[in-house]
Task: structure prediction
Amino acid sequence: MSTIAANILVIMLHGVGSSGNDLAPLANAWKDRIPGAVFMSPNAPAPSSFGSGYQWFSVAGVTEENRSTRIADARPSFDQVITSIIEANGFAGKLDRVAFVGFSQGTIMALDAAASGRWPVGAVVGFSGRLASPLPLQPARETPVLLVHGSADPVIPAAETTKAAATLQSLGLQVETLLLPGVPHTISAEGAAKAGDFLAETFAE
Result:
């Protein structure tokens, strides 16, 4: 039986109009699967354009043409949040023991962090998101990725996960996808369980 080292940092990144508290329950779901892991679920740095919660970048008036620019503009504040968490938890210089777990806009930022090459972390899990980063993409090929998406998502089509997986695989990354029939824009119990298994297996020793 594989054992899990007690030196893993899981950073959970929420969607627009939400907060870190909304993803915090994942820690309870995964703590037994990944013993000793530290779970952090920060608020995004900006108040949401919709008047409640927070956002990594504004989606007011967002289009396919301007989304990548907004992502690029959000990188400094995102990096500041991530750097603070990593340093506070003693993981500076140990990015291979760090995982990003995103939902919706949090997935967009997690994939951008890895795909841009800025954050060569040990694993990325993305729920209900898309890859919309500006070029060039230069990820660390050692970062495995799991993308989970519901087929009935009315906010971000599941086709975005298929597209993201193809792009990342073409860059040499190991990408696994799970498309869940009938699931809307949410993290289902099945998706959460799959992600927990993925993280446990990725960081097993």
